[in-house]
């Protein structure tokens, strides 16, 4: 017999109580979750509305920087020296191009892209943000722009962008004075960030690299503007919401004279050397030429490695600004300044005479310091010594004066110090002294060193600009003006003249000594190179040895290496009564100063002084 099933009795009261508790718990959870949801909605819709609206706009609105146009550069007569020209660039946005190598291969079939351009692009791509456009080729010709425009649909992510590029219409004529602009590199970026100027270069790819372009970058660059564009989810522009125009750079006018600059470069005729011309009335530089030169336009969009290597490795060193960085022995061009020292310190008087048999000797020493004229000048005083450039007279003067007194007197003329000209590429040269030699070589100073300094040789080096500046101080009878190239700045309404920077003048013990030396320089000029000039001039030539010749050896220009031949120099100014222009000319390895540098100085002064008459005729 099967057992009977147990009948389960339900406790309905207990079950009802359990259900109520569960229902209450569920209800509380629902209320809590609704509260959380409402709280989040409040946070999103009310408290964080502004923040999320901004983020939404950032996704919807694109801010595009607009580069300012660079200020123009003019010469003193308003002739343009640096301008802006339209150009086209091919740019690629990496994130929008699926297969870059394959795309470049297809693109090269319609637009030539050199191996160097592809290599530069590939290098830049490694450090570039993928959502930002990167230059692939620049500049494009109008034909290349047209070809790409027809085929653009086959190259998503690649576009042609228009802009303005710097252009120098006179090519290499003004290179070393103007400098050039080039692409902003990592070093430039770090400097701009350190100076808190990086934001001013939004949309700008170029910056002044040398010369005036670099020195006055803050004036020439301007301030960027921007466009606020509404874009869709694919990044395409729907409409422009706001436009803020950029502030263009300021135009600047220089003291340079274009026609005089042309004449100077023409006269150098490809020879290595430099010409500097200064207006002694205000310190404005009229001409600054360094030869050989190069075309700065090739640096604007990036010079090829091969072309740059050719400039960098050239023995003629075209990249060096010889006017401010070339360091040369001043030779006899500084004899007027040494004579002025001798007069002012009463070491000599205008009537003091020295016998020149063709050499000079230190008392008690056998060695002979030869004069350039082997048979000597006979009896000479300060005037005839300058006119004949008598070495013996200045050997004796230097010996009696001493190098420290020479150095102390010459420094106010600017020797051994940068002039302060408004470009960064400038050397200080060297004004030697006993302390200098001890610090530089840990050697004592010898009397023979002083004798060499007495004719502008030995350790004494100067730049052509320093030489012109020292000559200007002589012509101005002690008035000292800082050489400069900026004449005025043009703002929206007018031109603002640049102030003249003047230093304390050189005051002699006897101011009449200025007249004695300047008159001797005038006599020198009209005895030789300027005897038939239609104006009064003053001058002093120099011939600087590049290497030493032993006492018993003869200098033979026909047999020595070209780069070991003497340098030819001259300083000159006109008119003598009220100087308007001062020149310094240096020709490397050209030989005799009067014969080679002299004609250049004469032709330049003729160009400047007789210009009105020549134009009238």
From TrEMBL:
Pathway: Cell wall biogenesis; peptidoglycan biosynthesis. This is Peptidoglycan D,D-transpeptidase MrdA. It comes from Shewanella hanedai. Its cofactor is Zn(2+). Belongs to the transpeptidase family. MrdA subfamily. It is found in: Cell inner membrane; Cell membrane; Membrane. NCBIfam families: pbp2_mrdA. Pfam families: PBP_dimer (PF03717), Transpeptidase (PF00905). Zn(2+) binds at residues 356, 371, 377, 390. PANTHER family: PEPTIDOGLYCAN D,D-TRANSPEPTIDASE (PTHR30627), PEPTIDOGLYCAN D,D-TRANSPEPTIDASE MRDA (PTHR30627:SF2). One of its GO terms (molecular function) is peptidoglycan L,D-transpeptidase activity. Residues 66-241 form the Penicillin-binding protein dimerisation domain. Keywords: Carboxypeptidase, Cell inner membrane, Cell membrane, Cell shape, Cell wall biogenesis/degradation, Hydrolase, Membrane, Metal-binding, Peptidoglycan synthesis, Protease, Transmembrane, Transmembrane helix, Zinc. The active site is at 332 (acyl-ester intermediate). GO terms for biological process: cell wall organization; peptidoglycan biosynthetic process; proteolysis; regulation of cell shape. It catalyses: Preferential cleavage: (Ac)2-L-Lys-D-Ala-|-D-Ala. Also transpeptidation of peptidyl-alanyl moieties that are N-acyl substituents of D-alanine. Catalyzes cross-linking of the peptidoglycan cell wall. Its main location: membrane. InterPro entries: Beta-lactam/transpept, Beta-lactam/transpept-like, PBP_dimer, PBP_dimer_sf, PCN-bd_Tpept, Penicillin-binding_protein_2. It is a single-pass membrane protein. The gene is mrdA. The keyword Membrane applies.
């Amino acid at each position: 017999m099967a057992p009977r099933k147990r009948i389960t009795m339900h406790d309905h009261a207990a079950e009802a109580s359990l259900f109520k508790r569960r229902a209450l718990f569920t209800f509380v959870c629902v209320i809590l979750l609704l509260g959380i949801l409402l709280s989040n909605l409040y946070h999103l819709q009310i408290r964080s509305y502004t923040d999320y609206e901004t983020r939404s706009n950032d996704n919807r609105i694109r801010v595009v920087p607009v580069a300012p146009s660079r200020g123009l550069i003019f010469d003193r007569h308003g002739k343009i020296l640096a301008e802006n020209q339209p150009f086209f660039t091919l740019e690629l946005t990496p994130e929008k191009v699926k297969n870059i190598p394959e795309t470049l291969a297809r693109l090269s079939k319609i637009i030539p892209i050199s191996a160097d351009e592809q290599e530069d692009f590939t290098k830049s791509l490694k450090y570039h943000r993928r959502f930002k456009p990167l230059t692939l080729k620049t500049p494009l010709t109008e034909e290349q722009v047209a070809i790409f425009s027809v085929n653009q649909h086959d190259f998503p992510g690649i576009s042609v962008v228009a802009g303005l590029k710097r252009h120098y219409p006179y090519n290499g004529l003004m290179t070393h004075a103007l400098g050039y602009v080039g692409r902003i590199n990592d070093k430039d970026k770090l400097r701009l960030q350190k100076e808190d100027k990086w934001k001013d270069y939004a949309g700008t790819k170029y910056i002044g690299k040398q010369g005036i372009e670099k020195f006055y970058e803050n004036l020439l660059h301007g301030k960027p503007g921007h466009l606020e564009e509404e874009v869709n989810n694919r990044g395409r522009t729907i409409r422009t919401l706001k436009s803020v125009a950029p502030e263009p750079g300021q135009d600047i006018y220089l003291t340079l004279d274009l026609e005089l600059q042309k004449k100077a470069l023409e006269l150098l005729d490809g020879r290595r050397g430099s010409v500097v011309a200064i207006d002694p009335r205000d310190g404005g530089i009229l001409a600054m030429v360094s030869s050989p030169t190069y075309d700065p336009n090739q640096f604007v969009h990036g010079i090829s490695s091969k072309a740059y290597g050719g400039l960098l490795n050239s023995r003629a060193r075209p990249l060096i600004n010889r006017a401010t960085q070339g360091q040369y022995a001043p030779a006899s061009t500084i004899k007027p300044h040494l004579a002025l020292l001798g007069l002012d310190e009463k070491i000599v008087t205008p009537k003091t005479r020295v016998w020149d048999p063709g050499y000079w000797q230190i008392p008690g020493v056998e060695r002979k310091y030869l004069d350039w004229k082997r048979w000597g000048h006979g009896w000479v005083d300060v005037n005839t010594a300058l006119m004949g450039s008598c070495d013996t007279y200045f050997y004796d003067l230097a010996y009696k004066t001493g190098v420290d007194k020479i150095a102390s007197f010459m420094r106010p003329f600017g020797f051994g110090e940068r002039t302060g000209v408004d470009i960064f590429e400038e050397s200080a040269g060297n004004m030697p002294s006993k302390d200098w030699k001890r610090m530089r070589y840990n050697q004592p100073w010898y009397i023979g060193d002083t004798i060499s300094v007495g004719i502008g040789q030995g350790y004494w080096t100067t730049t052509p600009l320093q030489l012109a500046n020292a000559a200007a101080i002589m012509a101005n009878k002690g008035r000292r003006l800082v050489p400069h190239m900026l004449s005025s700045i043009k703002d929206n309404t007018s031109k603002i003249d640049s102030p003249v920077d003047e230093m304390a003048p050189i005051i002699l013990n006897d101011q009449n000594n200025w007249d004695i030396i300047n008159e001797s320089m005038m006599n020198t000029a009209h005895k030789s190179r300027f005897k038939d000039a239609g104006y009064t001039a003053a001058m002093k030539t120099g011939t600087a040895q590049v290497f030493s010749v032993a006492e018993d050896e003869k200098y033979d220009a026909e047999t020595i290496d070209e780069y070991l031949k003497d340098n030819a120099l001259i300083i000159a100014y006109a008119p003598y009564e009220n100087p308007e222009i001062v020149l310094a000319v240096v020709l490397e390895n050209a030989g005799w100063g009067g014969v080679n540098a002299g004609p250049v100085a004469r032709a330049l002064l003729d160009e400047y002084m007789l210009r009105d008459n020549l134009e009238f005729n």
